[in-house]
Amino acid sequence: MPEHEPPTGAWELPEEFRLLAETVRRFMATEVRPLEDKLEHDAAGLPPELLLPLQEKARELGLWALQTPAEYGGAGLSVLGQVVVAEEAAKCRMGAFFPAAGAFGGNPPSVLFKASPEQFERFARPIIEGRTGKAYTAISESSGGSDPARAIRCRAERRGDHYVLNGTKLWTSHALTADWGVVYARTGEQGERGGISCFVVERDTPGLSMVPIEVMNSFSPAELRFDDAEIPVGNRIGAEGAGFALASDFLVRGRILYAAGPIGIAQQALEMTVEWVKDRAVFGSRLSDKQGVQWMLADSEIELRAARLLTYQAAWNADLGRDVRVDASAAKLYATETAFRVLDRCVQLFGALGLSREMPLERWFRDLRVKRLGEGATEVQRMVVARHLLK
Ligand SMILES: Cc1cc2nc3c(=O)[nH]c(=O)nc-3n(C[C@H](O)[C@H](O)[C@H](O)COP(=O)(O)OP(=O)(O)OC[C@H]3O[C@@H](n4cnc5c(N)ncnc54)[C@H](O)[C@@H]3O)c2cc1C
């Protein structure tokens, strides 16, 4: 056996990432959480008079347009850097849907990075510069969201210099407040993967109407109805039929980022729970003295560490340019399932207080439940991993 040098240095993230995490942690503690404390429990966002000054402070720290590559005017963080930020930025009450309560806004839907320069300047630039808010991405329909290549029925028919859009999109997040969004519609045969095209649709498009949908958490998505809505050909991103091919890389990387937030939330909940059980006494001793409780805490810590390592590894490999389809699915599945399980234990250990609206726990519980379905449900991630094993 050849002799191996023992490792030098700790098993930890490189220093630049630890400093980045520390900057975000401080920003969350000093700027974000005190503002959120002024809002009602289920608030779906900060009002502009609180959000805009917060965004200014984030921009001064360079915490802006983090997912936007530097050549497009963003911070151009690596995937690992984005993961580190997302984990810390989720540690606030509305962290599951708005990292840092929306302070780090400024990224267009990723498919815009494949748009023409004119489309990019017109639609994406105002978001990166903070002149307008989030844009939406509409894929899912009533016919199903897990297998959109087969399910999408919303049709775009070309007529001269425009397309005529008919159909309905469901569950579209941020649509009610966005100036525009990206809509995937069928231009080819039903069931054909290559038959989907991607369009930018502006808010005031005649023939487009929206209806809010109530779900278990406070971020109400919308139903989008297209009734002979005319979309200029110039709003199509990429070639006709190339919609999914354009989006697929981004969808895979999006899963890695999606994994990071729930880990941050569950870690925050676990830290709160550790403090609580050290203080709470029942049956003559503190909860923390009871082995059953200690095991719940230990399992939570171990599972969160495993989720974090899977997610960092997926990000690391993505930054190396590797095929991360399996890494991303494994991270997304394990992080979202783990975070939900940990939150459930934390709620249990807090007793009735854990279910009350005095605590962020019950809100996080609902938010994390949604995470197991969004961005490719748990079963879809399993399918990706199993396909790889069996191919
Ligand atoms: C709050 C919220 C916000 C959302 N925001 C957006 C958005 O912005 N844009 C957007 O396009 N969509 C959005 N969605 C929709 C979301 O992406 C879909 O709900 C999700 O993709 C699942 O699709 P579905 O609900 O149609 O379920 P279906 O696709 O009908 O699946 C139903 C169940 O079957 C399971 N399943 C699927 N395939 C398999 C299989 N092979 N084996 C075993 N089980 C399987 C699924 O995991 C799921 O549990 C949002 C949803 C919610 C709740």
Automatic annotation (TrEMBL):
Pfam families registered for this protein in UniProt: Acyl-CoA_dh_1 (PF00441), Acyl-CoA_dh_M (PF02770), Acyl-CoA_dh_N (PF02771)
GO molecular function: acyl-CoA dehydrogenase activity; flavin adenine dinucleotide binding
Keywords: FAD, Flavoprotein, Oxidoreductase
Coiled coil ranges: none
Gene Ontology process terms (BP): fatty acid beta-oxidation using acyl-CoA dehydrogenase
GO annotations of cellular component type: cytoplasm
Cofactor needs: FAD
Residue ranges occupied by any Acyl-CoA dehydrogenase/oxidase N-terminal domain in the UniProt entry: 15-130
Family matches, as InterPro entries: Acyl-CoA_dehydrogenase, Acyl-CoA_Oxase/DH_mid-dom, Acyl-CoA_Oxase/DH_mid-dom_sf, AcylCo_DH-like_C, AcylCo_DH/oxidase_C, AcylCoA_DH/ox_N, AcylCoA_DH/ox_N_sf, AcylCoA_DH/oxidase_NM_dom_sf
SUPFAM superfamilies: Acyl-CoA dehydrogenase C-terminal domain-like, Acyl-CoA dehydrogenase NM domain-like
Domain Acyl-CoA oxidase/dehydrogenase middle, chain residue ranges per copy: 138-228
Residue span, Acyl-CoA dehydrogenase/oxidase C-terminal domain: 241-390
PANTHER family: MEDIUM-CHAIN SPECIFIC ACYL-COA DEHYDROGENASE, MITOCHONDRIAL, MEDIUM-CHAIN SPECIFIC ACYL-COA DEHYDROGENASE, MITOCHONDRIAL-RELATED
Family of this protein: Belongs to the acyl-CoA dehydrogenase family.
Protein name: Acyl-CoA dehydrogenase
Organism: Amycolatopsis acidiphila
